[in-house]
Design goal:
The protein is α+β, with helices and mostly antiparallel strands. The chain has helices at residues 64-76, 134-139, 148-157, 171-174, and strands at 3-6, 12-15, 25-31, 33-34, 37-45, 48-52, 55-57, 78-94, 101-116, 126-132. The strands form 3 sheets. The chain has a 4-stranded mixed β-sheet with strand order 7-3-9-8, with helices on both faces. Strands 4, 5, 6 and 10 form a 4-stranded antiparallel β-sheet that branches.
């Protein structure tokens, strides 16, 4: 099999077969500010008790914004409405305990609380939802699930917000597999 690629001059060139295809894990996250604090979760991981935004893997047949709303509910019992796209983030995770090595592509959204469902069971591993101020989040960076937790807060505080239309989902995705 021959693979084609573009060179910097945008000419098509032949390439040798790839030995391994790099596939980052796609996750969605929601940054939810309220009264000077941010909605976070405390979760049990293979690396211990960590702090993260409500976040998780994008599911097949799901638009990224819908996945962010779903994850927020599953992990915090809060219903959120996303109203902006914060950005796309890449991060590499390498566990010192298990040797796991994964690159994550995080699509982060900004949302607001529109309801609370106290009877909603939280996802496995989630200990609790909590609200922390930026200085409290910064002070707990050694417990963050990834460096993206603090980066997303910083970007939000710096005023970064893009329209939701910045993330396009073709209808073929929503038809499932």
């Amino acid at each position: 099999m021959v693979f084609l690629r573009y060179n910097p001059r945008h000419e098509i060139m032949q390439d040798t077969p790839m030995r391994q295809v790099w596939k980052p894990s796609v996750t969605v996250a929601t940054i939810v500010p309220r009264d000077g604090k941010f909605l976070l979760v405390e979760e049990q991981t293979t690396d211990g008790l960590c702090i993260n935004q409500p976040a998780g893997h994008l599911e097949c047949g799901e638009a990224p914004a819908d996945g962010a709303v779903r994850e927020a509910l599953e992990e915090t019992a809060y219903q959120v409405r996303v109203n902006a796209f914060l950005g796309a983030y890449l991060s590499r995770y390498r566990s010192s305990r298990t040797g796991e090595d994964v690159t994550y592509l995080r699509l982060a959204f900004v949302g607001e609380v529109v309801g609370h469902v106290p009877e909603q069971p939280l996802d496995e591993g989630i200990v609790r939802a909590l609200w922390l101020a930026p200085d409290e989040i910064s002070a707990t960076r050694e417990r963050h699930r990834s460096p993206l937790v603090w980066q997303c807060v910083q970007d939000y505080l710096a005023g970064r917000q893009l329209p939701l239309e910045a993330v396009y989902t073709h209808p073929s995705v929503l038809n499932g597999v």
